[in-house]
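User: quick one, sequence for these C-alpha coordinates?
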Protein backbone atom coordinates (compact mmCIF):
# COMPACT_ATOMS: atom_id res chain seq x y z
CA UNK A 1 0.00 0.00 0.00
CA UNK A 2 1.07 3.60 -0.54
CA UNK A 3 1.76 5.32 2.75
CA UNK A 4 0.63 8.88 3.46
CA UNK A 5 2.06 10.47 6.60
CA UNK A 6 -0.02 13.27 8.13
CA UNK A 7 1.83 15.25 10.79
CA UNK A 8 -0.61 17.13 13.03
CA UNK A 9 -4.11 16.00 14.01
CA UNK A 10 -5.65 19.34 14.97
CA UNK A 11 -9.14 20.64 14.22
CA UNK A 12 -8.44 21.51 10.60
CA UNK A 13 -7.35 17.93 9.79
CA UNK A 14 -10.73 16.18 10.28
CA UNK A 15 -12.07 16.46 6.70
CA UNK A 16 -8.62 15.79 5.24
CA UNK A 17 -8.33 12.52 7.17
CA UNK A 18 -11.90 11.43 6.43
CA UNK A 19 -11.40 12.02 2.69
CA UNK A 20 -8.23 9.91 2.61
CA UNK A 21 -9.75 7.12 4.72
CA UNK A 22 -12.81 7.02 2.46
CA UNK A 23 -10.51 6.71 -0.58
CA UNK A 24 -8.00 4.35 1.05
CA UNK A 25 -9.27 1.00 -0.29
CA UNK A 26 -9.98 2.31 -3.78
CA UNK A 27 -6.62 4.13 -3.99
CA UNK A 28 -4.59 1.52 -2.07
CA UNK A 29 -3.62 3.96 0.68
CA UNK A 30 -2.41 3.53 4.23
CA UNK A 31 -2.67 6.68 6.31
CA UNK A 32 -0.34 7.24 9.25
CA UNK A 33 -1.30 10.09 11.55
CA UNK A 34 1.41 11.45 13.81
CA UNK A 35 0.67 13.91 16.58
CA UNK A 36 2.29 14.90 19.86
CA UNK A 37 -0.98 13.62 21.39
CA UNK A 38 -1.49 9.94 20.53
CA UNK A 39 -5.07 10.21 21.80
CA UNK A 40 -5.81 13.02 19.34
CA UNK A 41 -4.38 11.01 16.45
CA UNK A 42 -6.35 7.91 17.46
CA UNK A 43 -9.60 9.85 17.71
CA UNK A 44 -9.27 10.93 14.08
CA UNK A 45 -8.91 7.42 12.61
CA UNK A 46 -11.62 5.68 14.65
CA UNK A 47 -9.99 2.23 14.34
CA UNK A 48 -10.01 2.32 10.53
CA UNK A 49 -8.26 -0.73 9.03
CA UNK A 50 -6.15 1.39 6.65
CA UNK A 51 -4.83 3.83 9.25
CA UNK A 52 -2.30 3.94 12.05
CA UNK A 53 -1.94 6.52 14.82
CA UNK A 54 1.51 7.27 16.19
CA UNK A 55 2.86 9.64 18.80
CA UNK A 56 5.20 12.03 17.00
CA UNK A 57 7.11 14.95 18.43
CA UNK A 58 8.13 16.96 15.38
CA UNK A 59 11.06 18.41 17.34
CA UNK A 60 12.49 14.93 17.93
CA UNK A 61 14.74 14.51 14.88
CA UNK A 62 14.93 10.71 15.12
CA UNK A 63 11.15 10.25 15.51
CA UNK A 64 10.51 12.65 12.64
CA UNK A 65 13.05 11.09 10.28
CA UNK A 66 11.86 7.56 11.06
CA UNK A 67 8.24 8.42 10.25
CA UNK A 68 9.09 10.35 7.07
CA UNK A 69 11.32 7.57 5.70
CA UNK A 70 8.38 5.14 5.77
CA UNK A 71 6.07 7.48 3.82
CA UNK A 72 5.56 7.99 0.09
CA UNK A 73 4.24 11.51 0.66
CA UNK A 74 4.06 13.77 3.73
CA UNK A 75 1.28 16.19 4.66
CA UNK A 76 2.25 18.75 7.30
CA UNK A 77 -0.71 20.20 9.18
CA UNK A 78 1.58 21.81 11.74
CA UNK A 79 1.77 25.54 12.44
CA UNK A 80 3.54 27.22 9.52
CA UNK A 81 6.81 27.87 11.37
CA UNK A 82 7.25 24.11 12.04
CA UNK A 83 7.11 22.97 8.38
CA UNK A 84 10.73 23.62 7.53
CA UNK A 85 12.33 20.74 9.48
CA UNK A 86 9.79 18.36 7.96
CA UNK A 87 10.57 19.80 4.51
CA UNK A 88 14.32 19.31 4.94
CA UNK A 89 13.76 15.65 5.87
CA UNK A 90 11.52 15.25 2.82
CA UNK A 91 14.41 16.52 0.67
CA UNK A 92 16.85 14.15 2.40
CA UNK A 93 14.63 11.08 2.04
CA UNK A 94 13.15 12.17 -1.33
CA UNK A 95 9.48 12.41 -0.35
CA UNK A 96 6.80 14.67 -1.84
CA UNK A 97 5.25 17.17 0.60
CA UNK A 98 1.96 19.07 0.89
CA UNK A 99 1.03 21.96 3.23
CA UNK A 100 -1.78 24.50 3.43
CA UNK A 101 0.55 27.29 4.59
CA UNK A 102 2.07 30.29 2.84
CA UNK A 103 5.47 29.61 1.26
CA UNK A 104 8.12 30.91 3.65
CA UNK A 105 11.54 32.13 2.54
CA UNK A 106 13.05 29.00 4.10
CA UNK A 107 10.68 26.78 2.12
CA UNK A 108 11.37 28.73 -1.09
CA UNK A 109 15.10 28.10 -0.59
CA UNK A 110 14.46 24.36 -1.04
CA UNK A 111 13.04 24.84 -4.56
CA UNK A 112 16.17 23.90 -6.53
CA UNK A 113 16.82 20.75 -4.49
CA UNK A 114 13.18 19.70 -4.82
CA UNK A 115 13.34 20.18 -8.60
CA UNK A 116 16.64 18.29 -8.88
CA UNK A 117 15.12 15.33 -7.04
CA UNK A 118 11.80 15.54 -8.93
CA UNK A 119 9.82 16.29 -5.75
CA UNK A 120 6.52 18.14 -5.64
CA UNK A 121 6.38 20.50 -2.65
CA UNK A 122 2.82 21.80 -2.89
CA UNK A 123 2.04 24.68 -0.50
CA UNK A 124 -0.83 27.16 -0.08
CA UNK A 125 -3.45 24.58 -1.00
CA UNK A 126 -5.95 25.05 1.80
CA UNK A 127 -8.67 27.70 1.89
CA UNK A 128 -6.91 31.06 2.03
CA UNK A 129 -4.30 30.49 0.75
CA UNK A 130 -5.55 27.75 -1.55
CA UNK A 131 -9.08 27.82 -2.87
CA UNK A 132 -8.64 31.58 -3.31
CA UNK A 133 -5.66 31.00 -5.65
CA UNK A 134 -7.33 28.24 -7.63
CA UNK A 135 -10.70 29.93 -8.10
CA UNK A 136 -9.05 33.23 -9.02
CA UNK A 137 -6.64 31.72 -11.55
CA UNK A 138 -9.41 29.73 -13.20
CA UNK A 139 -11.28 32.92 -14.12
CA UNK A 140 -8.15 35.01 -14.80
CA UNK A 141 -6.84 32.36 -17.22
CA UNK A 142 -10.26 32.14 -18.89
CA UNK A 143 -10.42 35.91 -19.39
CA UNK A 144 -6.90 35.96 -20.85
CA UNK A 145 -7.55 32.93 -23.08
CA UNK A 146 -10.56 34.76 -24.55
CA UNK A 147 -8.44 37.83 -25.33
CA UNK A 148 -9.46 39.97 -22.36
CA UNK A 149 -7.13 42.30 -20.45
CA UNK A 150 -7.40 42.30 -16.66
CA UNK A 151 -7.99 45.73 -15.12
CA UNK A 152 -9.10 44.92 -11.59
CA UNK A 153 -8.88 42.02 -9.16
CA UNK A 154 -10.24 42.10 -5.62
CA UNK A 155 -10.45 39.05 -3.37
CA UNK A 156 -12.02 38.69 0.07
CA UNK A 157 -12.30 35.77 2.50
CA UNK A 158 -13.51 35.31 6.05
CA UNK A 159 -14.11 32.57 8.59
CA UNK A 160 -17.38 33.51 10.30
CA UNK A 161 -20.17 31.97 12.32
CA UNK A 162 -23.23 30.61 10.48
CA UNK A 163 -26.37 32.80 10.80
CA UNK A 164 -28.22 30.22 12.92
CA UNK A 165 -25.31 30.20 15.41
CA UNK A 166 -24.76 33.97 15.38
CA UNK A 167 -25.71 34.73 18.97
CA UNK A 168 -23.53 37.66 20.01
CA UNK A 169 -23.50 41.36 19.21
CA UNK A 170 -20.16 41.15 17.39
CA UNK A 171 -21.63 38.65 14.90
CA UNK A 172 -18.38 36.73 15.28
CA UNK A 173 -16.93 33.62 16.93
CA UNK A 174 -13.52 31.99 16.68
CA UNK A 175 -13.50 29.46 13.85
CA UNK A 176 -9.71 29.15 13.68
CA UNK A 177 -6.64 30.15 15.71
CA UNK A 178 -7.83 32.91 18.11
CA UNK A 179 -4.30 34.32 18.43
CA UNK A 180 -4.16 35.03 14.70
CA UNK A 181 -7.45 36.92 14.95
CA UNK A 182 -6.20 39.10 17.82
CA UNK A 183 -2.93 39.89 16.02
CA UNK A 184 -4.49 40.37 12.55
CA UNK A 185 -3.04 43.25 10.57
CA UNK A 186 0.08 43.75 12.68
CA UNK A 187 3.66 43.76 11.41
CA UNK A 188 3.59 46.54 8.84
CA UNK A 189 1.32 48.59 6.64
CA UNK A 190 -1.29 46.98 4.39
CA UNK A 191 -0.32 47.55 0.76
CA UNK A 192 -2.46 47.49 -2.38
CA UNK A 193 -3.03 49.38 -5.62
CA UNK A 194 -6.24 51.11 -6.74
CA UNK A 195 -6.62 52.56 -10.23
CA UNK A 196 -2.86 52.68 -10.65
CA UNK A 197 -2.27 54.48 -7.34
CA UNK A 198 -0.37 52.71 -4.56
CA UNK A 199 -2.15 52.75 -1.20
CA UNK A 200 -0.80 52.02 2.27
CA UNK A 201 -2.80 51.64 5.48
CA UNK A 202 -0.85 51.61 8.77
CA UNK A 203 -2.09 49.20 11.46
CA UNK A 204 -3.61 51.94 13.63
CA UNK A 205 -5.87 52.98 10.71
CA UNK A 206 -6.61 49.53 9.26
CA UNK A 207 -9.98 48.86 10.87
CA UNK A 208 -11.45 52.24 9.89
CA UNK A 209 -10.73 51.79 6.17
CA UNK A 210 -13.17 49.05 5.22
CA UNK A 211 -14.83 47.92 1.99
CA UNK A 212 -18.49 46.88 1.93
CA UNK A 213 -20.15 44.18 -0.16
CA UNK A 214 -23.40 42.23 -0.45
CA UNK A 215 -22.87 38.57 -1.26
CA UNK A 216 -25.37 36.22 -2.88
CA UNK A 217 -28.27 36.67 -0.54
CA UNK A 218 -26.06 36.00 2.48
CA UNK A 219 -26.23 39.61 3.64
CA UNK A 220 -23.97 42.61 3.88
CA UNK A 221 -20.33 42.28 4.86
CA UNK A 222 -17.29 44.47 5.42
CA UNK A 223 -13.62 43.76 4.77
CA UNK A 224 -10.34 45.22 5.93
CA UNK A 225 -7.18 45.06 3.80
CA UNK A 226 -4.73 42.18 4.06
CA UNK A 227 -1.05 42.90 4.67
CA UNK A 228 0.44 42.61 1.16
CA UNK A 229 -1.81 42.50 -1.88
CA UNK A 230 0.93 43.71 -4.23
CA UNK A 231 2.90 40.44 -4.35
CA UNK A 232 -0.05 38.72 -6.03
CA UNK A 233 0.44 40.75 -9.20
CA UNK A 234 3.45 38.65 -10.17
CA UNK A 235 2.05 35.40 -8.70
CA UNK A 236 -1.13 35.70 -10.79
CA UNK A 237 0.62 37.11 -13.85
CA UNK A 238 -1.07 40.51 -13.44
CA UNK A 239 1.98 42.79 -13.36
CA UNK A 240 0.19 45.60 -15.24
CA UNK A 241 -3.13 45.47 -13.39
CA UNK A 242 -4.49 48.83 -12.17
CA UNK A 243 -6.31 47.53 -9.07
CA UNK A 244 -5.24 44.66 -6.80
CA UNK A 245 -6.77 44.36 -3.34
CA UNK A 246 -7.17 41.42 -0.94
CA UNK A 247 -9.12 41.65 2.29
CA UNK A 248 -10.57 39.79 5.29
CA UNK A 249 -14.36 39.58 5.63
CA UNK A 250 -16.36 40.36 8.78
CA UNK A 251 -19.99 41.26 9.42
CA UNK A 252 -20.69 44.99 9.29
CA UNK A 253 -19.82 46.79 12.54
CA UNK A 254 -17.08 44.42 13.71
CA UNK A 255 -14.14 46.51 12.51
CA UNK A 256 -15.34 49.78 14.01
CA UNK A 257 -15.63 48.16 17.44
CA UNK A 258 -12.38 46.20 17.09
CA UNK A 259 -10.60 49.45 16.32
CA UNK A 260 -11.23 50.54 19.93
CA UNK A 261 -9.04 47.68 21.17
CA UNK A 262 -6.35 48.65 18.66
CA UNK A 263 -6.37 52.32 19.69
CA UNK A 264 -6.23 51.45 23.39
CA UNK A 265 -3.26 49.11 22.85
CA UNK A 266 -5.02 45.93 23.96
CA UNK A 267 -3.82 43.97 20.90
CA UNK A 268 -0.13 44.68 21.62
CA UNK A 269 1.96 41.51 21.91
CA UNK A 270 5.37 43.13 22.46
CA UNK A 271 5.54 43.32 26.27
CA UNK A 272 4.24 41.52 29.35
CA UNK A 273 2.14 42.92 32.17
CA UNK A 274 3.19 42.81 35.82
CA UNK A 275 1.12 40.51 38.03
CA UNK A 276 -1.23 39.74 35.13
CA UNK A 277 -2.23 36.46 36.78
CA UNK A 278 -4.08 38.17 39.63
CA UNK A 279 -5.57 40.98 37.58
CA UNK A 280 -9.32 41.24 37.00
CA UNK A 281 -10.84 41.93 33.60
CA UNK A 282 -11.75 45.39 34.91
CA UNK A 283 -8.18 46.03 36.06
CA UNK A 284 -6.89 45.03 32.64
CA UNK A 285 -9.24 47.42 30.85
CA UNK A 286 -8.31 50.22 33.24
CA UNK A 287 -4.57 49.77 32.46
CA UNK A 288 -5.04 51.57 29.16
CA UNK A 289 -7.12 54.48 30.47
CA UNK A 290 -6.02 57.71 32.16
CA UNK A 291 -6.18 57.96 35.95
CA UNK A 292 -9.19 59.74 37.39
CA UNK A 293 -10.08 60.09 41.08
CA UNK A 294 -13.77 60.40 40.21
CA UNK A 295 -14.63 58.77 36.86
CA UNK A 296 -15.48 55.09 36.57
CA UNK A 297 -13.67 52.74 34.20
CA UNK A 298 -16.82 52.62 32.08
CA UNK A 299 -17.00 56.40 31.81
CA UNK A 300 -13.30 56.71 30.95
CA UNK A 301 -13.64 53.97 28.31
CA UNK A 302 -16.66 55.67 26.73
CA UNK A 303 -14.89 59.02 26.72
CA UNK A 304 -11.68 57.67 25.18
CA UNK A 305 -13.50 55.71 22.48
CA UNK A 306 -15.99 58.57 21.88
CA UNK A 307 -18.97 56.22 22.29
CA UNK A 308 -22.22 58.14 22.62
CA UNK A 309 -24.90 57.03 25.05
CA UNK A 310 -27.19 55.81 22.27
CA UNK A 311 -24.40 54.09 20.29
CA UNK A 312 -25.14 50.37 19.93
CA UNK A 313 -21.39 49.68 19.93
CA UNK A 314 -21.33 50.17 23.71
CA UNK A 315 -23.36 47.00 24.20
CA UNK A 316 -20.69 45.03 22.31
CA UNK A 317 -18.15 45.86 25.02
CA UNK A 318 -20.57 45.23 27.87
CA UNK A 319 -21.29 41.80 26.39
CA UNK A 320 -17.58 40.87 26.61
CA UNK A 321 -17.61 41.53 30.38
CA UNK A 322 -14.43 43.61 30.19
CA UNK A 323 -15.57 45.70 33.19
CA UNK A 324 -16.10 42.71 35.50
CA UNK A 325 -14.09 43.15 38.75
CA UNK A 326 -14.53 39.49 39.77
CA UNK A 327 -13.27 37.59 36.70
CA UNK A 328 -9.53 36.95 36.92
CA UNK A 329 -7.12 36.90 33.99
CA UNK A 330 -5.25 33.91 35.41
CA UNK A 331 -2.30 34.14 32.97
CA UNK A 332 1.26 34.66 34.23
CA UNK A 333 3.45 37.26 32.53
CA UNK A 334 0.90 37.75 29.78
CA UNK A 335 0.97 40.30 26.98
CA UNK A 336 -2.05 42.55 26.39
CA UNK A 337 -2.90 40.50 23.28
CA UNK A 338 -2.83 37.25 25.26
CA UNK A 339 -5.13 38.67 27.93
CA UNK A 340 -7.54 40.08 25.34
CA UNK A 341 -7.62 36.68 23.64
CA UNK A 342 -8.49 35.01 26.97
CA UNK A 343 -11.35 37.49 27.53
CA UNK A 344 -12.69 37.04 24.00
CA UNK A 345 -12.60 33.25 24.22
CA UNK A 346 -15.17 33.47 27.04
CA UNK A 347 -17.68 34.92 24.57
CA UNK A 348 -16.50 33.88 21.12
CA UNK A 349 -15.82 30.17 21.50
CA UNK A 350 -18.14 28.02 19.40
CA UNK A 351 -20.78 26.15 21.40
CA UNK A 352 -21.29 22.39 20.95
CA UNK A 353 -24.08 22.79 18.36
CA UNK A 354 -22.70 25.89 16.64
CA UNK A 355 -21.78 25.86 12.97
CA UNK A 356 -19.19 27.99 11.24
CA UNK A 357 -19.33 29.58 7.79
CA UNK A 358 -16.73 30.48 5.17
CA UNK A 359 -17.37 33.37 2.79
CA UNK A 360 -15.13 34.05 -0.22
CA UNK A 361 -15.78 36.75 -2.80
CA UNK A 362 -13.79 37.68 -5.93
CA UNK A 363 -14.26 40.65 -8.26
CA UNK A 364 -12.69 40.60 -11.74
CA UNK A 365 -12.72 43.69 -13.96
CA UNK A 366 -11.46 43.34 -17.52
CA UNK A 367 -11.48 44.91 -20.95
CA UNK A 368 -12.40 43.05 -24.13
CA UNK A 369 -11.88 45.06 -27.30
CA UNK A 370 -13.49 48.44 -26.51
CA UNK A 371 -15.82 47.33 -23.72
CA UNK A 372 -15.28 46.78 -20.00
CA UNK A 373 -16.83 43.93 -18.00
CA UNK A 374 -16.99 42.79 -14.40
CA UNK A 375 -17.51 39.34 -12.89
CA UNK A 376 -18.33 38.55 -9.27
CA UNK A 377 -17.62 35.03 -8.03
CA UNK A 378 -18.71 34.00 -4.53
CA UNK A 379 -18.58 30.94 -2.29
CA UNK A 380 -20.56 30.53 0.94
CA UNK A 381 -20.00 27.26 2.86
CA UNK A 382 -21.48 26.17 6.20
CA UNK A 383 -19.97 23.56 8.50
CA UNK A 384 -21.76 20.30 9.31
CA UNK A 385 -20.87 20.26 13.01
CA UNK A 386 -17.97 20.91 15.37
CA UNK A 387 -15.85 18.15 13.81
CA UNK A 388 -16.47 18.72 10.12
CA UNK A 389 -16.47 22.49 10.18
CA UNK A 390 -16.55 24.67 7.07
CA UNK A 391 -12.97 25.64 7.92
CA UNK A 392 -11.86 22.00 8.17
CA UNK A 393 -13.59 21.12 4.88
CA UNK A 394 -12.23 24.04 2.88
CA UNK A 395 -8.69 23.70 4.28
CA UNK A 396 -8.45 19.90 4.37
CA UNK A 397 -10.17 18.72 1.20
CA UNK A 398 -7.90 20.55 -1.29
CA UNK A 399 -4.86 19.26 0.63
CA UNK A 400 -6.16 15.68 0.42
CA UNK A 401 -7.10 15.96 -3.26
CA UNK A 402 -3.69 17.35 -4.20
CA UNK A 403 -1.98 14.57 -2.21
CA UNK A 404 -3.78 11.78 -4.08
CA UNK A 405 -3.11 13.46 -7.42
CA UNK A 406 0.60 13.76 -6.68
CA UNK A 407 0.72 10.08 -5.71
CA UNK A 408 -1.12 9.13 -8.90
CA UNK A 409 1.21 11.15 -11.11
CA UNK A 410 -1.50 13.63 -12.19
CA UNK A 411 0.50 16.51 -10.68
CA UNK A 412 4.11 16.15 -11.78
CA UNK A 413 5.68 19.62 -11.98
CA UNK A 414 8.47 19.49 -9.37
CA UNK A 415 9.58 22.21 -6.99
CA UNK A 416 8.22 24.45 -4.23
CA UNK A 417 4.94 25.80 -5.58
CA UNK A 418 1.38 27.00 -5.03
CA UNK A 419 -1.70 25.78 -6.96
CA UNK A 420 -1.88 28.31 -9.80
CA UNK A 421 -1.33 25.90 -12.72
CA UNK A 422 -4.23 24.34 -14.62
CA UNK A 423 -2.98 20.78 -13.99
CA UNK A 424 -3.59 21.48 -10.29
CA UNK A 425 -6.58 23.80 -10.03
CA UNK A 426 -8.93 22.48 -12.72
CA UNK A 427 -9.44 18.91 -11.41
CA UNK A 428 -9.41 19.97 -7.76
CA UNK A 429 -12.02 22.72 -8.20
CA UNK A 430 -14.17 20.25 -10.16
CA UNK A 431 -13.93 17.61 -7.42
CA UNK A 432 -14.62 20.17 -4.68
CA UNK A 433 -18.02 20.73 -6.28
CA UNK A 434 -18.90 17.12 -5.37
CA UNK A 435 -18.48 18.18 -1.73
CA UNK A 436 -20.68 21.27 -2.07
CA UNK A 437 -17.75 23.66 -2.37
CA UNK A 438 -18.54 25.73 -5.43
CA UNK A 439 -18.67 29.31 -6.64
CA UNK A 440 -21.65 31.27 -7.91
CA UNK A 441 -20.57 33.51 -10.76
CA UNK A 442 -22.40 36.51 -12.21
CA UNK A 443 -21.70 39.36 -14.57
CA UNK A 444 -22.34 42.86 -13.24
CA UNK A 445 -21.74 46.34 -14.71
CA UNK A 446 -18.09 47.36 -14.64
CA UNK A 447 -17.68 49.55 -11.54
CA UNK A 448 -14.01 50.51 -11.88
CA UNK A 449 -13.01 54.09 -12.54
CA UNK A 450 -11.33 55.50 -15.61
CA UNK A 451 -7.69 56.03 -14.54
CA UNK A 452 -7.34 58.79 -17.13
CA UNK A 453 -10.10 60.95 -15.66
CA UNK A 454 -10.24 60.01 -11.99
CA UNK A 455 -7.39 60.54 -9.55
CA UNK A 456 -7.96 58.73 -6.26
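Assistant:
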Amino acid sequence: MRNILIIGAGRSSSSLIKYLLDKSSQENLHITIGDVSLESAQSKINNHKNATAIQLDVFNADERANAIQKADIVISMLPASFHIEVAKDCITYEKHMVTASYISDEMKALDEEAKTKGLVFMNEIGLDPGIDHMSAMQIIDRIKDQGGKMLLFESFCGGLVAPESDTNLWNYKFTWNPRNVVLAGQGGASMFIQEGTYKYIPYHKLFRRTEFMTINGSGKFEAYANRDSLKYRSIYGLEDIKTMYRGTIRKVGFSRAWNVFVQLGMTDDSYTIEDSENMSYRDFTNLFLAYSPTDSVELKFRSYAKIDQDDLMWDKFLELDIFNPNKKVGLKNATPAQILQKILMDSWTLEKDDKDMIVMHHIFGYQYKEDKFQIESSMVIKGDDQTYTAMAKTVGLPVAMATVRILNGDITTPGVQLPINKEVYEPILKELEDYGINFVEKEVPYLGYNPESVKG
